[in-house]
Amino acid sequence: MRKYLLPVYAVAFFTFLLAPVLALTIGSLTEANYVSFPPEGLSLRWYMKIFAEQESMYALIMSLGVATAAATVATAMALPTALALHRYRTPLNKVVYLLVMTPAMLPAVFLGLAFLLFYSALGFGGTPLSLVAGHIMIATPFAVSMNMVGLASNDGALERAARSLGASPIMAFRKITVPSISWSLFAGWGFAFMISFGSLEVSLFLSTSTMVTLPVQIYTGLEWSPLDPSLTAVSSGLVIVTLTVLILTARFVKIDRFLQR
Amino acid sequence: MRKYLLPVYAVAFFTFLLAPVLALTIGSLTEANYVSFPPEGLSLRWYMKIFAEQESMYALIMSLGVATAAATVATAMALPTALALHRYRTPLNKVVYLLVMTPAMLPAVFLGLAFLLFYSALGFGGTPLSLVAGHIMIATPFAVSMNMVGLASNDGALERAARSLGASPIMAFRKITVPSISWSLFAGWGFAFMISFGSLEVSLFLSTSTMVTLPVQIYTGLEWSPLDPSLTAVSSGLVIVTLTVLILTARFVKIDRFLQR
Amino acid sequence: MSYLSVQSLEHSYGSVRVLDHVSFNVAEGERLCLLGPSGCGKTTTLNAIAGFVETDGGRVVVRGEALTGLPPEKRNIGIMFQNYALFPHMTVFENVAFGLRMRREAEASVCDRVTDMLRLVKLSHAAKRFPKQLSGGEQQRIAFARAIAIKPALLLLDEPFSNLDARLKVEMRNELLELLRPLKIATIMVTHDQEEAMAIADTIAVMRRGRIEQMGSAREIYRSPANLFVASFIGESNVLEGRLRSVASGVATVDAGGVGPVMARHSGGLRSGDHVQIIVRPEDIRVGTRPACGTCAATNRFEAKLVDVTFLGNRTVIRTQIGEAPMVLSGDEQFASSLRGVQRGQSVYIDWASDRGLIVKKEEAQ
Amino acid sequence: MSYLSVQSLEHSYGSVRVLDHVSFNVAEGERLCLLGPSGCGKTTTLNAIAGFVETDGGRVVVRGEALTGLPPEKRNIGIMFQNYALFPHMTVFENVAFGLRMRREAEASVCDRVTDMLRLVKLSHAAKRFPKQLSGGEQQRIAFARAIAIKPALLLLDEPFSNLDARLKVEMRNELLELLRPLKIATIMVTHDQEEAMAIADTIAVMRRGRIEQMGSAREIYRSPANLFVASFIGESNVLEGRLRSVASGVATVDAGGVGPVMARHSGGLRSGDHVQIIVRPEDIRVGTRPACGTCAATNRFEAKLVDVTFLGNRTVIRTQIGEAPMVLSGDEQFASSLRGVQRGQSVYIDWASDRGLIVKKEEAQ
């Protein structure tokens, strides 16, 4: 009896908390012109509609592009940073670590505002570059920490073994370390992508009327007509991409390991 | 030489990326009526001004209140959930874990929209309760994962030892387990607080004209006058609270452990 | 009726049989050791007695009362955990007092009892320290004091020395024995270390795959192992395989493949033609550079090839081969000195008395 | 000139002296073992030779060439790592081939050499498997094959058996020895296990706190330890403390506190009145229920109190006390059988020949 109390409690609680998500998704299957739960009739008409809507498709493509670029740059930067943090145990190391992690710690509103003002001052405010730069900034800490997990779980003796067998430091890194931590590179990229793809705050500050990401599109659509079912349909696109990347990423991280340790 | 390359690279890179934050903060020390870098003269006038501004102070207090409430409820919910997840290794367990973590994985825009529609449908949209409920939702996963780290690092033999010495399950939990994992309760609360305090997305959807949190205040202020230095000063309030909680929390988590493992 | 009686415990995790009708008795003041490799079920047995595992079948009876269904806190069993499991946020005093306070004893009597316990383990001066301020050996003594402070009906020791280094192990073993002896408390210890088991226990139960393979004193188990598993788990052994040729009372002759006829004792139940194994302990074989005297008829004598001689301090190990069968000999320095000058690969002569070999039935591969 | 010469290595981490003028030579084909407790500097010495640690001073010379400043990949040293460090994403074949491919050898000769190596370690059939598909013992053999495939000038073994259980340890030890012997390669092994060291090495260097305390064969170190640290690190020992009364050539008399005069051998450098320790190995003491013959003048004879007798299978340990001084004896079963019927606390008579005790100067507490 006692044995089942806790999981039942947990399921009940979170089902209630997650009910909104389900209600929203199911509600958007309505045939009426507004979201309702239970839906009035079942149809995919609102999902069909968004494929015809140029702005939504444009925002989706913009979001995918920005997130891909940001995640890729973030991963490229994260590997050497994580290596440095992993390898050298100096006081400087801790400072660097805190610096690297800061964007993940500070409120995104503050960061968005700071980027807006700074990039404008540098003269590239309102360009795609500024949007991508802001996203790189918020995505990097996640790629770095994932890479550090990878390096920490990597056995340093492997690299020493390669060296003793005649491999130069670069060869040992390429042939031994990179393959051993490749999962963390993939997972880091995935997390960075998700962070960037789902971010509203930074995008709100850095997007312009010609550069609208999906979250911004949803938010502005909401201000205009909150119960428009096509809005919900659009946000489903957001969720589907996020979950796809999440599931792919989790395959690399082996979520079980984290759950069971 | 090679030894110093990586940290130098990392510092340079992140200093550049963090420059906006510094520029914004320093720029707000200006005497002029707009943020500029370098600042025109140095003064704290814009910081002084916000203490006189009723809306900003109100937003700060609102944010503190919401974050405190959300973090507290999230922590209270997180402990039994984490216990259940830690103790029972059933297939159901994995489902619960994924459910619990969902709010941290899904884009906040989507969640915000879902909350807005659902809570409105339930008839308490636009109330302080709906704002707090949304924040609880996004803060809970962080409290849960921190508690799970705490439980995982807790030696189960301690509880068994207490039982063998005559303690009932409840006594063993209170006298032995809770003290052993108290750091993770504190740290989980701190993380939940930070998430709630810094969140713009969910608040944007759930706040009304009479319930404005600090991030919302900053964002709406920006739409009105982007280069107002008092806006920057307000966002400093956000940063200061966040960093204070972060530092207090980090004392519990012992960030070194995470850095060095 | 015995003090503690464990009756036919059964337990499975999924399709894995962890305990397969485990039964044994422990008398008052007796020290029993469950010995076996990891996964043999010894820890599950301990947990079943302690109440941490609900078995699928069987029961545990202490002084005539079945413990079945009682939660651990109602069993009055003292446990010394493998990692000691001292409460890190409590002082040494509070750790030892914990069980008494859970029993709502008056604070004055708690204080007296804890003081007595700390004096017993010679750590009175450490009462106010926290566990992590103590050495491994001191932590163990506190764990012991905490376990016996509640005057338990039974004491369980879970791999008590596994966290100590080799040298400290022997020291703590002797210390624990000195503490245990005057208490005269029924004790069950779990270990995978044969030497620990032999040093501490009155009776050893060797377990494998959830079953007790043999129970007896250290000497019985070492000298008359029930099968090859027990023989090789307790001490080293040479094994010769063959078919039984003839059986006399207590002694039988085996045609050992590639070696020839070997005589050894047996404990009955064998027939001519059986597949058997002969177990000979390394220290029971003598060696020399000439054949042993021909008059001792009951002795097994072979010419063997010297593989190597290894000096290991308190003993010297000589590896030889009879044909293809390896035979390892061990003895003191003097024993090896007779081989001085013999080169690797040369012939030596080894022999052992027929009562030094033991015939057991060959187990089917599992 | 020796094949490998390690000359006065010095190293510190912060204020901790890790290596304090470590020097030794290894001849071609010799097996040297660095033995000591954790933190004694043995692993740092190995890493300094391999090139993973740049020492503050000293040098390593192989065949007359100093390795100083050379990175690990230019040293041509084969290393078998403690956890084997097999590359998990490569097959067994690729693992063994790695060093050869880094040397840009032709693929055909790589293939030949790897095939030879796998045949040597009897794992030809496992060429296409991945390391995690192999047992611990098989992984070790692959690690060995990989280390020697590059025909190294020197072979380093870092705690080679620490990951194996007790039984497999002995087996793998013999196996490694069989592989090493015909190779005749200079080998340095690091271990904290005295038995491993004695079984594998020609020469043992016992280290403590960054220094080599004693170097010699297993027998030299066991029989004539330089000090109490070495004596108690290699094997068990009884220690009696006292002041030197008189010194004759090779033999001296000590007034051991609470025991009386004890005669033992010494290696010189002592004076009357010195604080000394007498080391007696447990297996060198005889025991009986009556005093030993009075005619053997050079023998130390004492009446002692029996503490207990423990049967440990291949040996029996008898604990006694002379006054307050504990004396532990060990021997075979027969040796203990003479005490049958003697109760704990009763008197027994122990004696040992004066050349079985060794006098060493008492070290100052550090």
UniProtKB/TrEMBL annotation, chains A, B:
Localization in the cell: Cell inner membrane; Cell membrane
Main subcellular localisation: membrane
Membrane topology: Multi-pass membrane protein
SUPFAM superfamilies named in the record: MetI-like (SSF161098)
ABC transmembrane type-1 domain mapped to chain residues: 60-249
TM region(s), chain numbering: 57-83, 95-119, 131-153, 181-206, 231-253
Entries under Pfam families matching the protein: BPD_transp_1
GO BP field: transmembrane transport
Lyase as UniProt keyword: no
Cellular-component GO terms for this entry: plasma membrane
Keyword terms: Cell inner membrane, Cell membrane, Membrane, Transmembrane, Transmembrane helix, Transport
Database matches in InterPro entries: MetI-like (IPR000515), MetI-like_sf (IPR035906)
Similarity field: Belongs to the binding-protein-dependent transport system permease family.
Protein name: Putative spermidine/putrescine transport system permease protein
Organism: Amaricoccus macauensis
UniProtKB/TrEMBL annotation, chains C, D:
Any GO MF annotation of the entry: ATP hydrolysis activity
Keyword terms of this UniProt record: ATP-binding, Nucleotide-binding, Transport
Keyword Transport on entry: yes
Domain ABC transporter: 4-234
GO biological process: quaternary ammonium group transport
Pfam families: ABC_tran (PF00005), TOBE_2 (PF08402)
GO CC annotation, single: ATP-binding cassette (ABC) transporter complex
Glycosyltransferase in keyword set: no
Designated name of the protein: ABC-type Fe3+/spermidine/putrescine transport system ATPase subunit
